[in-house]
């Protein structure tokens, strides 16, 4: 009886592990398709198609449809051959459909409206992913799953369109071919509304689960329960997916689970009736052939719980218990392989994130406030028109240096001395723009000039001071001071002015933008001008190079001035 109890517990644990493993693989499978949708979200042609007006030209529609297929959809079909279709529907009733190895269909305006209404009713307004047992392909009802989400256009942050992909629900069964549930065991999936998403009996897909069974399933949670709704008594174990809210249910016939136990008990009772001696001999034999393998199996399961994916040794004979041990070894081997694949995927994702961050950093360097360069070019044109002057040569030389310095995107860090030199050339150009000399007070000690800092961060702060600190023009008493030093293991560079300063509310708003740790996107201020790109991007670039704990600190008092301090680590000093 003790051995039988342990076997029942072991079988239930095995069903729990199978259900958990199947849910895990199903979530990975669906997340892979989620990433396929995410890869399309930032595609410019797709976003511009969403903004296409209802009165669009047919050629524009044809051009967008062709471009999206060539550069977005066809590569997606190649990477994911199991996808059946991809389609877009905008709020302006524009729609495109792409099919992969299924019969292509066309839809009129009324069909598109019905599809849009259905998806809007079954998706969330915040753009979250929704997984639906639905298809637009005729004749494929209850055979497809649709992954859909709302997306925005190119010109507005509002969600004004729908992006959906369809895949065959039968493909899910391929994930579980390696799971052995015996001749009569199987798995099926139920959605949160109590409908069959997948079932080996295809006739049940899309139908409602019996109400009594669904209630019992929800009450049991992660525990097993017994039910006879399918004709015979079966044991069920369910696991709920946090990703899709589906419940994956493992079903095994009770008679098959208890068959080994019944054989053991019957044999023991029959042998006991013949003779006590024979019973003792048989008890000793069964003790070795059953109890020891069970204990070995339990020990192996404890090691598995600790994360040690080790198989257990098999005895020389073969019976039901040894077969169970063989299945356990197979399960451990496949779980180990699955964990290795997950680790490889995580490493791959980490490399992708690093590449994206580097691309974001280099892109950021090229967008630091080009308006100063445009204004300077206009100044050069004016000088060239009025008179021949050496001033033009001076401006062009300074501008050429600044341009060469700006486009060196392969260098992320530079010495303080080089940044100060860049500021010096900026002042040469600025002198001709404002029509007067202006000297900046540089208070940085010589021993700090070889410290490294993020390139193209000092000049944007100087330019910001000229643009915002002296709105009524420069006076003789105005000053801008650059200082730097090391304090408590932190290297800092400050830019201070005695200009108009900022109000507490404006300072608080700017600090909140800094705390979001996002790149500036050129918000329009009250005066209708784009402002703050240079300051916010300087802060974010420092964080991208050195970490989130570094960046820009701002202090300001109205009518007294502003002080902006770049905070960086002291670990890096440029070699002489």
From TrEMBL:
Q: Which domain of life is it from?
A: Bacteria
Domain HAMP stretches: 288-340
What subcellular locations does the record give? Answer: Cell membrane
Q: What's in the keyword line of the UniProt record?
A: Cell membrane, Kinase, Membrane, Phosphoprotein, Transferase, Transmembrane, Transmembrane helix
KW Nucleotide-binding (keyword) present: no
Database matches in SUPFAM superfamilies? ATPase domain of HSP90 chaperone/DNA topoisomerase II/histidine kinase
Q: Which GO terms describe its molecular function?
A: protein histidine kinase activity
Report the principal subcellular site.
membrane
Q: What is its EC number?
A: 2.7.13.3
Topology versus the membrane, per the UniProt entry?
Multi-pass membrane protein
One Pfam family this chain carries? Answer: HATPase_c
Q: What is this protein called?
A: Two-component system sensor histidine kinase YesM
Identify the species of origin. Paenibacillus aceris
């Amino acid at each position: 009886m003790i051995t039988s109890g342990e076997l029942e517990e072991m079988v239930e644990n095995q069903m729990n592990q199978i259900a958990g493993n199947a849910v895990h693989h199903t979530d990975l499978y669906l997340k892979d398709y989620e990433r396929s949708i995410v890869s399309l979200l930032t595609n410019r042609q797709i976003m511009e198609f969403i903004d296409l007006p209802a009165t669009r030209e047919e050629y524009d529609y044809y051009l967008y449809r062709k471009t999206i297929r060539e550069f977005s959809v066809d590569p997606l079909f190649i990477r994911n051959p199991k996808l059946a279709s991809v389609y877009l529907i905008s709020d302006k009733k524009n729609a495109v459909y792409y099919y992969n190895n299924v019969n292509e269909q066309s839809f009129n305006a009324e069909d598109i409206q019905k599809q849009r209404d259905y998806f809007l009713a079954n998706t969330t307004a915040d753009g979250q992913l929704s997984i639906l047992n639905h298809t637009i392909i005729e004749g494929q009802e209850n055979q497809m799953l649709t992954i859909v989400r709302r997306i925005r256009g190119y010109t507005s942050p509002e969600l004004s369109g729908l992006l959906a992909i369809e895949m065959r629900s039968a493909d899910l069964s391929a994930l579980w071919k390696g799971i052995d549930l015996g001749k009569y065991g199987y798995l099926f999936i139920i959605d949160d509304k109590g409908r069959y998403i997948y079932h080996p009996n295809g006739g049940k897909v899309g139908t409602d689960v019996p109400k009594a069974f669904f209630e019992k399933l929800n009450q049991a949670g992660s525990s097993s329960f017994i039910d006879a709704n399918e004709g015979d008594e079966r044991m069920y174990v369910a696991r709920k997916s946090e990703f899709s809210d589906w419940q994956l249910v493992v079903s095994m016939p009770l008679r098959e689970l208890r068959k080994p136990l019944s054989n053991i008990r019957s044999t023991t009772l029959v042998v006991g009736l013949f003779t006590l001696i024979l019973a003792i001999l048989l008890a000793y034999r069964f003790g070795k052939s059953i109890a020891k393998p069970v204990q070995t199996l339990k020990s192996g399961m404890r090691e598995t719980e600790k994360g040690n994916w080790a198989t257990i040794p098999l005895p020389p004979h073969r019976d039901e218990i040894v077969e169970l041990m063989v299945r356990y070894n197979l399960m451990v081997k496949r779980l180990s392989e699955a964990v290795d694949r997950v680790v490889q995927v995580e490493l791959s994702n980490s490399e992708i994130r690093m590449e994206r961050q580097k691309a974001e950093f280099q892109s950021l360097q090229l967008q630091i406030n080009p308006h100063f360069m445009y204004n300077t070019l206009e100044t050069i044109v004016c000088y060239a028109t009025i008179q021949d002057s050496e001033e033009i040569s001076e401006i062009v030389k300074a501008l050429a240096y600044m341009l060469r310095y700006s486009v060196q995107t392969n260098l992320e860090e530079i010495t303080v001395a080089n940044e100060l030199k860049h500021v010096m050339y900026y002042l040469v150009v600025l002198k001709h723009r404002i029509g007067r000399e202006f000297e900046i007070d540089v208070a940085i000690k010589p021993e700090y000039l070889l410290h490294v800092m993020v390139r193209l961060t000092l000049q944007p702060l100087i330019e910001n001071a000229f643009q915002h600190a002296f709105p009524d023009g420069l006076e003789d008493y105005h000053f801008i001071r650059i200082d730097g030093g090391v304090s408590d293991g932190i290297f800092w560079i400050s830019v201070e002015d005695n200009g108009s300063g900022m109000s507490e509310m404006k300072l608080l708003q700017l600090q909140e933008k800094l705390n979001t740790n996002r790149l500036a996107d050129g918000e329009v201020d009250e005066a209708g001008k784009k402002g703050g790109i240079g300051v916010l991007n300087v802060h974010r670039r420092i964080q991208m190079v050195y970490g989130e704990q570094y960046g820009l600190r701002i202090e300001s008092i109205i009518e007294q001035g502003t002080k902006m301090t770049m905070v960086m680590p002291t670990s890096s000093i440029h070699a002489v």
